[in-house]
Amino acid sequence: MSNLSKRVVARVVLGLGLAVAGCASVGIGVTSAGDIRRNPASFEGKEVTVRGTVNEVTKLPIVEVKSYTVLDSTGEIRVTTRGAAPAKGERVVVRGVVSSTAIVGGHSLGMHLSERERSAAY
After folding, report:
1. Percentage, residues of the chain above pLDDT 70
2. For 6-27, how does the pLDDT look when each residue is reduced to its tens digit (9 = 90+)?
3. Which of 22, 53, 59, 117 has its CA 20 to 30 A from that of 30?
4. Structural domains for the chain
């Protein structure tokens, strides 16, 4: 393969990578908080991406885990993190795993999203 062909392939791969990485910031591949709350059993243990505004932040000084809620147009979902919590009002895209303490009769008790990755929303 010539140097020109290698450069073209490298640019195409880079472009595709950037396009895929940017999908969540524009809403592609994003699950609404309302969908998760309406049917928690179908999301249990699954990785999802949510996008919205940080509505409430909870930090307990003796516990490593912090939590915050992400509000979108359909509702809100609690997110737990071991990292620094975002500021209230910040727009975020969060990828994480949905988990509940228990699901009784299709209703989730203690449902939250365990944060794996977070970035700023555009």
Report:
1. 70
2. 565 556 555 444 444 444 444 4
3. 59
4. 3-120 (2.40.50.140)
